[in-house]
Design a protein that fits this description.
The chain is of the alpha+beta class. The chain is built from 21 helices and 15 strands.
């Protein structure tokens, strides 16, 4: 029974020495001296702020993309024991001892290192020789720009890693298709393709470009499968469902999970709250949640409320009034009603409080039981401190003459009657009998006499002059097509009024609320709002010293100075390997020219290369050339500040095209032994030049050693490069 113990247990394994060696070299090139410099380098000043907020569990919104990449950087901080206490306010600032620099930079460096063996594997899966695959990996290994970008707390190396992993996974899945469909390895690589695509998109939306390329490729391959008569309808359906599950459903679910974890981690109120809705703010610990705790849910006649404009950008503001009146005449000579000013005020203030009044009754308190206000009900809004009624009439607004002035009515005993009846329209109602709810309901106020809609026009225009204390204009918008957010309001703070006397009511307006409100938002509601903010909230694009255009990237007419030592002159620059980038451009042009030549010749029934070589050539072009195109060309359509690092995913694919073209030239155009030998010698000489450029620029890639002035000047190979030269 125990006879098997008489023989030793032997385990055999195949080890690809090339792959192991490339991985080790990649790790050395990216991890060596990772803590240097121990100072904030370029965009570390930006991403570091988010890492600190993660450590403190404080909510934030980053309009540059989804949260997965930020969470990976924060994971490095967590593993290093970072407490989040560091002021990220200046590039070049020395890190304090509590900042685990090595740990924070580790994940981007590992991702950058693993791109080297991934490049090797991709060429192998494209059925190119191991020599060509080795060349591709070495080009990625010696690419100065990729080394620089992966050695700091930045996201591009992580993005490129997931992009390459997605491409490799799909190629492995596709190569298993004919002989091992629905096997364990087939499922593994298909699922890993979807997971990698989702992770790439979760790091930066630039990952969508490669994701779309792989979806299109999968769609094309499935289209060819439909024409295969050997596959039954049931088999085709199973293939379709498997691809739909792995490449669409699972990535979508994983993308949602990134936000779920993000929102679960960041449960505390923070500086970015103000751009979110009141309901979202109230769901966070502290901040508005502290203020709104204990509020009644349903707005009733007699409720005391503050009304926040839903638009919330460029700043949040609340419906506000004060005792000052509009000037009799404006600077341009137009007249006003001289009524009490109504504005939108960007700070919390007692003058933001209003009382919801029933037009048919005089009382300003909530009855027992409360009478809730519903969609379509007519109300009057009484300013809490001055007790004047919100009013609009056919008088031009101060800054928007095509809109109506909004005021609090003062009876001057002239022929200008009060027009203070408003219809409540709940925009996000589920039925026409919905009750107006605190925080949750988004409402419009439609003027009964003129059908004008209450609008915070100042959010998209200039502030009022000095007489209006630079507050934001509120108007009655007569052309009220659609539901623009500047016309929509929600109740943020709310209490049931109990005091009929004005003096007692003023004291009440300053007191805290006492009743309960359910303010929990579902995850999907929070996700939808946060996703919309990320997509629509854009910072004002300003010209940056190192910004560039997409055309500058191909010829590398630009660089970025990442860091400068304050005394020695040592510096780090984002600069590509000139020899590699020039060769990549040449390979792209040569690939396009040869492809066009072959297509024209094949149209004439002339086949210069075998069919299998043609299929290999086209598939490599779809992956490498297509990857370059989809990651580069969209930037010509973007209206945003661009930097050289935006080109790195595209140039990575373009670099992979170099050995593809070289092997094709060697196999099919160098027909004699002499030509092959000469071509091999030229290839070795060219690769030596790549290594020479890498070594030449390594001092500004790694930041050490510090170069003397003459050598720094010698590195300025182009006049457009900004190598930092200290004045003597």
């Amino acid at each position: 029974m125990l006879g098997f113990l008489k023989e030793p247990v032997v385990v055999t394994a195949k080890i690809n020495v090339n792959l192991v060696a490339l991985t080790v070299m990649g790790l050395i090139s990216r991890l060596w001296g990772l803590c240097y410099p121990r100072a904030v380098v370029f965009d570390e000043v930006y991403y570091g702020q988010f890492v600190s907020l993660y450590m403190k569990r404080i909510f934030f919104v980053d309009d540059s993309g989804p949260p997965f990449g930020h969470m990976l950087l924060a994971l490095g901080g967590y593993l290093g024991g970072f407490d989040g206490n560091f002021l990220w306010n200046r590039i070049g600032a020395e890190y304090s001892m509590n900042v685990p620099v090595w740990s924070l930079r580790l994940l981007p460096a590992l991702a950058g290192a693993l791109c080297v063996p991934l490049a090797y594997q991709i060429l192998v899966e494209l059925h190119f020789s191991h020599c060509a695959a080795l060349g591709a990996a070495l080009l990625i290994l010696l690419e100065n720009s990729l080394i620089t970008q992966s050695r700091f707390m930045l996201l591009e190396s992580i993005l490129i890693f997931f992009i390459l992993l997605a491409v490799l996974s799909y190629l492995k899945f596709y190569n298993l298709q004919k002989h091992s469909a629905f096997s364990g390895s087939w499922w593994f690589w298909l699922l890993l393709t979807g997971v990698s695509c989702s992770c790439a998109v979760g790091v930066k939306y630039m990952g969508l470009f490669t994701y779309m390329l792989l979806l299109a490729t999968a769609g094309l391959h499935f289209w060819h499968m439909i024409g295969d008569q050997n596959l039954s309808n049931v088999s085709l359906l199973c293939h379709f469902l498997a691809r739909g599950l792995a490449l669409i459903i699972i990535p979508m679910g994983l993308y949602l999970s990134f936000f779920y974890v993000h929102l679960a981690l960041l449960y505390r109120s923070g500086p970015h709250d103000q751009i979110m809705t009141s309901a979202f703010q109230a769901s966070l610990e502290g901040g508005l949640a502290r203020i709104t705790q204990g509020q009644p849910l349903e707005v009733a006649y007699g409720s005391q409320i503050t009304l926040r404009n839903v638009l919330g950008k460029p700043m949040q503001c609340w419906l506000h009034s004060h005792t000052n009146t509009y000037p009799i005449r404006y600077e341009n000579g137009r007249g006003s009603s001289h009524q009490q000013q109504v504005t939108c005020y960007p700070f919390k203030d007692v003058n933001n409080w209003w009382i919801v009044k029933d037009p048919g009754m005089q009382q300003l308190v909530v009855s027992n039981p409360p009478r809730p206000v519903r969609h379509g009900h007519i109300v009057q809004l009484v300013h809490g401190i001055t007790t004047r009624y919100l009013n609009t009439h056919d008088v031009a607004a101060p800054l928007s003459p095509h809109s109506q002035e909004v005021s609090c009515y003062i009876d001057y005993n002239i022929s200008m009657p009060a027009q203070n009846l408003w219809r409540v329209e709940i925009v996000n109602r589920e039925s026409d009998t919905d009750v107006w709810k605190t925080i949750l309901s988004e409402v419009r106020f439609v003027h009964l006499n003129t059908s004008a809609v209450l609008k915070a026009s100042g959010l998209s225009g200039a502030s009022l002059p000095e007489w209006g204390y630079r507050q934001l204009e509120v108007v009655g918008e007569k052309l009220s097509k659609g539901y623009h957010q500047s016309m929509v309001w929600n109740v943020e703070e709310h209490r049931y009024g109990k005091s009929q006397e004005q003096k007692e009511r003023e004291v009440e307006l300053h007191s805290p609320t006492q009743m309960d409100i359910s303010k929990n938002l579902s995850f999907l509601a929070k996700f939808t709002e946060l996703q919309w903010k990320i997509l629509t909230l854009k910072n004002e694009d300003t010209e940056h010293k190192y910004s560039s255009s997409a055309l500058d990237w191909i010829t590398m007419d630009t660089n970025i100075a990442y860091w400068l030592h304050p005394t020695s002159g040592a510096q780090i620059h984002l600069l590509g390997n000139v020899a590699t980038w020039a060769s990549a451009n040449a390979a792209t042009v040569l690939y396009l020219c040869l492809s066009l030549w072959y297509l024209l010749r094949r149209r004439r029934k002339i086949y210069d290369i075998p069919e299998d070589a043609w299929q290999l050539w086209m598939s490599a072009g779809a992956v490498c050339g297509g990857g370059w195109a989809v990651n580069y060309l969209p930037f010509f359509l973007m209206e945003k500040t661009l930097f050289l690092y935006h080109y790195l995913p595209a140039v990575t694919f373009q670099i992979l095209l170099i050995p593809v073209v070289l092997q094709h030239l060697s196999n099919h155009l160098c027909r004699s032994v002499l030509l092959k030998s000469m071509f091999s010698a030229l290839t070795v000489a060219w690769f030596s030049s790549v290594y020479f450029v890498y070594c030449t620029f390594s001092p500004v890639t790694y930041g050490q050693p510090a170069l003397p002035l003459a050598e720094l000047k010698a590195l300025r190979w182009k006049d457009t490069w900004n190598i930092l030269i200290r004045k003597q």
